[in-house]
Amino acid sequence: MFQALKEASKARESREVPIGAVIVKDNKIIARGFNKCIALSDPTAHAEIVALRKAAKKLKNYRLNDCYAYATIEPCLMCAGALAKARIKKIIFGAFDKKADCYKNILKTGDIKKLSRRLVIVGKKEKHLSAECANIIKDFFKKIRQQKA
Amino acid sequence: MFQALKEASKARESREVPIGAVIVKDNKIIARGFNKCIALSDPTAHAEIVALRKAAKKLKNYRLNDCYAYATIEPCLMCAGALAKARIKKIIFGAFDKKADCYKNILKTGDIKKLSRRLVIVGKKEKHLSAECANIIKDFFKKIRQQKA
User: Fold this and answer.
1) Is this prediction's pTM over 0.90?
2) Stretch 39-58 of chain B: residues touching chain A, C-beta under 8 Å
3) What CATH number has the domain bearing residue B57?
4) Range of the domain at A107
5) ipTM for the whole complex
6) Cα gap A115→A56, rounded to integer Å
7) pLDDT, tens digit, for every residue of B43-65?
8) What angle do CA A138, A15, B23 make, to 5 degrees?
9) Pairing between strand B90-95 and A20-25?
10) How many structural domains compose chain A?
């Protein structure tokens, strides 16, 4: 998660919403990603999707069996769907995103569980640098609000 | 929708699941896409996402305000999320996807409605070549099953 957080800080440096993700296979990081929506003019360029696409390219397979995803924030609807489609084994995220509420609202819904296949979202407070993952975003938006004021 | 269906047949020619999509702005098609997951080793390369990324690149904006998306099949969790994030005004799809059931299960859920913002999914039978959109996929999988048997 520390590595995902490092990615998030790269996003902050480029003035994108600071979210980072890494994809792990056999205990090794095979791909990294941070939010690049504005830089790439790409609404799908969330950290998780950027990392996912890199990992699939690397493995030359659109199915990422036996891979784990670490993301600083609870994935949104699009990212959760993408991670499920890619057959990611488990997603570990740092902090919950109350606005998206994907974990609570979507993935626990009975019928959607089928869709999510082997997808399990885990967000444990202390273990996954939860506070750091949340704070980097909070501080980012706080600064933007201050600049606007 | 006829144009989206044309895209779907391109996917079929490349032996990908035959789904197609187009993005429309000011009554003009600004981007087209068909399923390229296998060809690109990219789990996110669904028709809708391919078209969405092209459209955003063209408009040099990750927000596709005042754009409409036409897809041959009901979008999956990932695509629905992506279209919502991109602020697509309306999605018109040809045939329902009973397996994904995104429309019924996700977008009608109260809390998720907020997420979907101005996203409205419409699938009207006769008007949107529904049978053709469904049949191209059915025939594709039927052939695959026959080849395996």
Assistant:
1) no
2) 40-45, 49, 52-53, 56-57
3) 3.40.140.10
4) 1-141
5) 0.83
6) 20
7) 999 999 999 999 999 999 999 99
8) 105
9) unpaired
10) 1
